[in-house]
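Worked example 4.2. Below are the chains of a multi-component assembly; read each line carefully before continuing.
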Amino acid sequence: MDVFHLLWLVPAFPLAGFLILALFGLRLHSRAIAWIGTGSIGLSAILTLWIGVHFLTQPPANYQYSLTLWTWFDINGFAPGIALYLDPLSLVYIFVITFVSFFIHLYSTAFMRSNEGYVRFFAYMNLFVFSMLVLVLANNLLLLYLGWEGVGLCSFLLIGFWYRDEVNGYAARKAFIVTRIGDTAFIIGLFLLVKQFHTLNIQDILQQAPVVWSAGATAVVWVTILLLGGAVGKSAQLPLQTWLPDAMAGPTPVSALIHAATMVTAGVYLIARTHVLYSLAPAVQLLVAIIGLLTLLIAGFSALAQHDLKRILAYSTISQIGYMFLALGVGAWTAAIFHFMIHAFFKALLFLAAGAVIMAMEEEHDIFKMGGLRKKMPVTFWTFLVGSGALAAIPLITAGFYSKDLILFDAFASTQGSFWLWLGGFVGAFITVLYTFRMVFVTFYGEQKKPITHNPEEEKAMMIPLVVLAVLSVIGGWIELPHAWAHFTPFSDFLTHVLPPTNLKPDMESQEFMLQLLTAVIVFAGIYLSWLAYVKKPALSASWKNTSLGRACHDFFYKGWMFDQLYDKLFVKPVVWISRIDPHDFIDYIYEGFGRLNVLIHAGFSRTQSGYVRWYLLCIAIGILFIFSLILFV
Amino acid sequence: MISVPVSVQLLLPSVLFLIGLLGVLIRRNVIFMLMAMEIMLNAAGLVFIIGSSLWKQADGQVMVIFILAMAAAEVAVGLALILQVFQMHKTVDVDQLQELKDERERG
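Applying the procedure described above to all two chains together yields the following structure tokens:
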């Protein structure tokens, strides 16, 4: 039996869960809500596993499988289908989405219990998972765009989940509007593609593009730039990164699922999916690398100065996606997807553990008011440590090392890479270590500053996901070992059925060991430095911060390089100013004019309704005469 | 047999139609309006006859029979309506029958 026919059920389960919860949720008991919300994702995850095993053991022809459910619409030959497409790339994505979502849902059953809107939360989350699965399984860009907007909508709804607080509503609107800028670029790119190919089927476009377009053609440059605009908005990269730190206003499981593991990596997926186009536009691909590099550095420095635990993680997410963009930009496609997967594991873990900490601290987000939680919350501490190790890429034992090291090596050794790209990533890696262990030491070491009232460690539903994700954050890296030691690369071998292998400059493999050694040195140096500054001699960091330069830097980084202030001056203020000097928009006068004219004509005509039948008859006679004379004389 | 040109032939129905039309427009008594309408109908029937003799086709004459039958039925209905109107309003003056007019537009 062909299990791939069941592929449609993978997104169908979350959709069914959403519909049940949305339609009947208010009548359900909270236990039933939790079962439906989590169970629907669980069924998807099991089915994905089954399909995945089949895919590995009995792969379909050419490692791709297409399932057309029905034709969406058909206009003059342009007929996008509701069609799913499974290949190694989408398989990796649905695997990560369903499994990480399942554990986050499980966590949420306990985490969200005391909240009103329990059913609303799970309904939105299921809708999100459905949209995300549609996004990665779509076989044409229009369906992908539907999923793309669907996840954007759910992101908006969930950031503003606690809508009674005005700040959350503001953060939700900000996220929606900023990503909308990227989405607009994205859809213009789609229009260009339709104009050229008369189809949005991804595989058709990828096959025809090299035939139609020569490398560096103007059209392909524009298309890739516009698609990159969409990816930049969704993945919170420079210059549209400002929405993600504010998006932390949502509940922590939302941050873990949407703003760390899945949705924000949709941009990476889009670029990897359309990699043929980017290969045709080397200049834009270089731009991708530069955007990634700048973002990872800017976000890394910003994370260094944050006090809010979730904001540190948010900036860290931006920074890690910057690494993925860097990998995409140097043609290390598989490395980007590998880092996406590992990042999904450890960043979801970090957010969930942070959620537990914040819950124990009664909604306290400031890490400097926590401290000393190591003994009181051992499970949270150890899993958080594993996640931090993966984020900081501690050599050999953590998965983050294998994925990030691959990106750094490719940034150096790929034919599109260079020493400068590597150096930027290398500095970024050092900053990553600093802010990661600053966060660990300040939160879990030192003296306890606040008593724990309700210890979330008693909640099994919250601790199991932490442990599972911690295990994945360690063993996940073993499926792709560095070239220097072993030629054991099943992950990239699997993906090369979709994505081309990375082209390395000659004689580079010998230098990989050197680079790894350097990375290892800075990781341990970074850990030692943060241990020194935040555990051994806390006065050290305080004294540095009190110098005028230190204070200026701290403020600058704390405000995320002042991007919010810059955009406020550049865009928000002028718009507000225009709307203030022009409260009655002059364009409205045109439309109001149409309305007034209609009222006038109507008043004129209504005068003819006199009530005299003979008057009406005269009008009819005149009308007939008029029409006849038109026919006869004109 | 003297053949009369078609344009002259058409003169009679035209004059009849105009008389009917003016009758409908000028007369205020509904019964006279009905009669004037009958004149217009017969003018139209006359045009059919002229056409029929011009093209040597029987269709036009068939149409006239139709018109006569229809006119008979229409007069029956029309007279019944007028009778009803007279019973309700005690008048057959068409200018006084203004119930369907929208009152709000008058001012």
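Take a moment to check your reading of the output against the notes. The beta strands of chain A are 65-71, 81-86. Chain A has four domains: 1-280, 333-546, 554-580, 584-633.
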